Structures are given as C-alpha cells and as structure tokens.
Amino acid sequence: MPIQNTDIAAVFNKVADLLEIQGANPFRVRAYRNAARTVSSLPRNVTDMIDSGGDLTELAGIGKDLAGKIKEIVETGSLKQLTEIERETPSELDALMKIAGMGPKRVKALHQELGVTDLEGLKAAAEAGEIQQLDGFGEKTQQTILEDLQKKVGKDTRIKLLEAEQRAGPLVANLKKTKGIKEIIVAGSYRRRKETVGDLDVLVTCKKGAKVMERFVGYEDVVKVVSQGKTRSTVVLRSGLQVDLRVVPQASYGAALHYFTGSKSHNIAVRKIGVKKGFKINEYGVFKDGERVAGKTEEEVYGKVGLPFIEPELREDQGEVEAARADALPELVRVEDIRGDLHVHTKETDGHHSLEEMAEAAKDRGYIYLAVTDHSKKVSMARGLNAKRLARQINAIDRLNEKLDGIRLLKGIELDILEDGSLDLPDDILKELDLRVCSVHYNRNLSQERQTERILRAMDNPYFNILAHPTGRLINERDPYDLELERVMEGALERGCYLEINAHPDRLDLSDRYSRMAKEMGLKLAVSTDAHSTTDLDFMRFGLDQARRGWLEPDDVLNTRDWKALKNLLKRR
DNA sequence: GCCGTTTTCGGCCCGACTGTTTTCAGTCG
After folding, report:
1. Is the per-residue pLDDT at A154 higher than 70?
2. Would the pTM count as exceeding 0.90?
3. Which of A448, A526, A556, A558 could make a disulfide contact with A552, Cβ separation 3.0–4.6 Å?
4. Distance in angstroms, CA of A226 to C1' of B18?
C-alpha cells in the first residue's frame, strides 16, 4: 500500500515530540506539528499529489525543507532525520508525553536521570518510588502518572458526537439551576460539530463563579476533580469524559465563546490579524492599549479585526479566514433547507415502522417527500426484497400516495453492489422506481484497485443514482474500505451519479473533508439518514453538521430541492 | 522550520492552574 497521509503525519509528529524532548527551538517543533496537521487533513493522498507533479510548498506551513522530507517519506517509506534523532533520544519517549502532566521537560528529566525509555520503564520507576525523588517531581506527580498509566490501557478517548450530546445535556441542565447564571453553552469541538469529541468545554457567564464551580465539581457523575479554580475547573465523569468549565463575566462572553470554541489554529489565525491591527485578543475581550474595545459577542470580536462572523463549523483554519477576508464565505446549508430524506427503511426489511408511519413522521418534520429504500435480496440478514416483493411494495406506495396529503413517498431501493460490480436486482424492476441508492455490504476487503473498479462498474448501470455510505466506515469501530474516492467522485460526475452523506451518527460517511472534496469537484451530495425507525429521521441534523463542515451550500445538496427539480437531477447522462 | 500591504531576518498566541516551590517552571488547552 502506498504511503498514506496519516503515515507522514505520524512521522512529523514523532519528530516534533522527540525534538521537543531534546529541547529544540519550540517554533521549529511547531512547524513539524503544523505540517502533520496540514497533511493529515488533506482530502487527497500526498502520494498522488507528488505523482501528478503538484507543488507541496503551496500547502499551508510546508516550505522547501518539509516538502523535501515529505517526498523522502513517500519515496523511501522513512525519514533519515528521524533515525538520527532516535539515536540520541529513544523512539518510544514520545508515548510518555501522552501521560497526564507529562511534557517534554519532565520526559527529558526522566530519561536522563532515571534512564526511562518507554511506558514500561515509566511504570517501573513510578512503582519503585524513584520518580518522586527527582527535582521538580513529587509524590503527587508520581501518583498521577501511575493512575493515568492504569487508565490509558486500550482506551479510545474521543467519543461520538451523539454520545457527547447525551452526556452534555444533563450536565448543562444541572448547572443551569445555579442562581445568577446568564449564559451557558458547550463550546469546543462540540460546538464546531466535529464527528467525535475529546472533551467538553462548558462556558458560563455569571457574576459569582464560586457557586457554579461548587455545583460543577459536586455533580453526581463526577468521579474526579482534576483542578478547581475561580474561573476554570476540570473534572472527569464516570464515563471517562473530561469536562472543563470556564466562568467569565458577561462583557467577555463573545470573546470567551470565540476563544473556547477554537479550533486552536483558527484562533491563532484570527489573533494574528488582530496583532497586525494593534489588538490583543484573549478570552476576556479585544484590547487596544490595555483598553477593552470589544468582547460581548463573537460578531464584535470578528468585526474588530475586519472579518464577518464565521460559522463554528468552519473554524478549522482550512481557508475560512482567507475566505472571510475576501468576503467569500459559503452560505452554509441548514437543516431547514432539507425537503426530504432519500434513504430510509421500513419493517418490510429491517426497519421498525410501516410505510404509513414513516410517511407521517416525515411530514411531521416538514418534508414534502420521503424515499423508501429498503434492502435488496442479497442482504438476507435484513430480509432484503426480491423483485416480486419489491413490485408489491411499489404497488403499496402508489396506493398510499393517493391517500397521503402534503407528503409524497418516492419508490426506491437500497441495492447491494456485488463483488463484480453488478447490482442485485434486474433492470426491468429497477426502471419502475423513482430512485435507487446503491451500497457495498459484502466483500469489504478487496484491494483499492478492485474496490474502486467495482463501484465504478456499478455506476455504469443506468439505474445507479446515489452511492450510499461511500466508505463503509463505522466511527471508532470499523475502518473504511480501501477506496480511491477521488476516482469514484470523478466517475459519479461523468455519469450523473451522486454520493451520500449518511447522517447516522455512527457513520457520518462521507466525512467532512470528503464532503468538501466533493464540493470542490462540483459533485452534489445527498444528505440522508438511513433511518430504520421514525425517530431515526432526526439524525438528519448530524448529517447537516458534517455537510456544513464540508462547506456545503443549499445548492450542493440534492434534497434541498422540490421533487420536480430533484427528479431532473437524477436523470442519468 | 515557516513566512512577509511594515519584514528575506526576526519574529512566531496567550492565560490559568498545579505542584513544588519560596517566586515559579511546567503543562494544558
């Protein structure tokens, strides 16, 4: 398999960690970290970019030197510089940096004073009580190290957005009971709607912070108070989720919200512009010559540095600041723009509700159409439909549509793409349908070439409309299958097919960056829930979160249109 | 190591909390 972007990022992050432990110039260290971030968030494989003669120095934070190093990694699979660094600083020391309270200075001390080279050595030294003897270390630090080592074993630290909502809800409701609270909001990657959340950043405005803090650390789910102060406290919940609470005065609300929403690199980009204009921006406001000149709202903060408001979903330092300066920010699609759902199941296969129940639920959500796309026969686990049963469902939908008012059921199917790229129902029944979504369920581990060809071949079928959950990944559970998505997208564009953003919070497939890649290629996407019950229809907003993170506007999303316009778009070229 | 409508050299975001200290370094976000 060719070198992947994450491989390159891993090498750069390792170089950064080890250089930092060696005490190298911190800005040089940051350059490697920035480069790792840039590379890992690229939608295209760097290997392909090099093959097609692309200039890597055009990427943010990649200069001549790092471009050369990327090339070296792609061509040789490794980096000489890293090997040299590892001669002086053991390779596994970077793992120590992930332990709570451990930074480069302490790792260096542990290595030099105690000869610790890896996590096992760290554990042994802690258990032997050697760590607390060192200058700058104490009993408490040694204890923290042991506890964290215990916890870290095989733990996935980022949780899915839906779980984050479920944990945040009751916590926020509880804090709200405190007297004197004005604003309370969960900021951080939660507010930016990232597909997974590492911790919760709760922001509160309040005259007296002490009462809120008291309630916060006393919350029934708290198992550990990591730190507690007047303006900031950190706790760990029973679930292992870390929560930070920050209290600021009302006049600083906008500045604090901006600050704690991040991302870090977005904030840095905005602050840099501020510095050029003579402002200092921190969580308390925008300051000029020590005087606060803005900070009550986020709009004010952006306004001071000459920028329009930037939606939280865009704040990743992926071009949004430049777009804001050029007054070229996208008008992001909103959940209210959605006119219908294009991928749902009924109890005819593995769903839980009838055609009528699904139709009514869709109508309740303000939709004007709902595509019924039950499984096809290959998916036997779900009692997939054969041609005969599908014909019966088509009849049932026709009859029901005569009765329904204000909502139209579209006749559809979720076809299985077989290993050879054929679809698992014959064309003469497919032609009776309004639309067909197609997906891979089996033979997930083909080579990239074969998997890509398989899907392109399926798209050659004139009844192929939308590729559902295009990469097949399940967040934190199952990796995507090996696929050259850019070719698939090009193939879809050529043939008049589309891809889906599957809104199910376990999938979110396409992801944000692939959605953005589609947008940049001019490929429209469907945002669909894959609902198996009436309540699943509410997953739509998670799909919209990712669509917005991918810079999508209403026109970029198929199902923002009425049925007539949608039908037109579905016509194959 | 990157980068440039003040700069190709000299900058590079900034404050809170903890633990180990006796005024602060290190870590974190």
Report:
1. no
2. no
3. A556
4. 10
Domains of chain A: 5-152 (1.10.150.110), 159-248 (3.30.460.10), 252-325 (3.30.210.10), 335-570 (3.20.20.140)
Residue identified by tokens 């991928």 is: A343
* B25 nearest neighbour residue (CA to C1'): A136
* Nearest nucleotide relative to A63: CA against C1': B2
pLDDT digits (tens, 9 = 90+) for A197-233: 989 999 999 877 888 999 999 998 898 899 999 899 9
> Strand B: which positions are within 7 A of a protein CB?
1-3, 6, 11-21, 25-29
DSSP A375: B
Assess contact for A108 and A23: CB atoms under 8 A. yes
Q: Name the closest nucleotide to A246, judged by C1' and CA.
A: B16
Residue A556: the pLDDT is 98
Rounded Cα gap, residues A260 and A434, in angstroms: 46
**Residue with smallest Cα–C1' gap to B16:** A232
Local confidence band at A32 (pLDDT 50, 70, 90 cut-offs): very high
**Integer distance in angstroms from CA A232 to C1' B17?**
8
* C1’ B26 / CA A213, Å: 25
User: A110 burial class (0-12, 13-18, 19+ CB within 10 angstroms)?
Assistant: buried
β-strand partners of A409: A370
Helices within A382-501 (DSSP H only): 387-403, 427-430, 448-460, 485-495
Q: Which two tokens stand for residue A495?
A: 């043939």
Spanning CA of A34 to C1' of B12, the rounded length in angstroms is 13
CA distance A375 to A244: 44
Look at strands A498-502 and A242-248 and give their pairing.
unpaired
Whole-number distance in Å between A102 CA and B25 C1' = 13
Identify the pLDDT of residue A156. Answer: 56
Instruction: Give the residue among A382, A360, A378 at the shortest CA–CA distance from A530.
Output: A382
- pLDDT tens figures, A81-124: 999 999 989 999 988 888 888 889 999 999 988 999 999 899 99
Question: Is the CB of A255 less than 7 A from some atom of nucleic acid strand B?
Answer: no
Is A244 (CB) below 7 Å from strand B? Answer: yes
Residue A210 vs residue A529, higher pLDDT: A529
A68: the nucleotide nearest its CA (via C1') is B1
Minimum-distance residue to B21 (CA–C1'): A136
Distance of A226 CA from B21 C1′ (whole Å): 20
- The whole-number pLDDT of residue A108 equals 92
Task: List the one residue out of A544, A482, A492 whose CA is nearest residue A518.
Answer: A492
**Would you state the pLDDT for residue A76?**
93
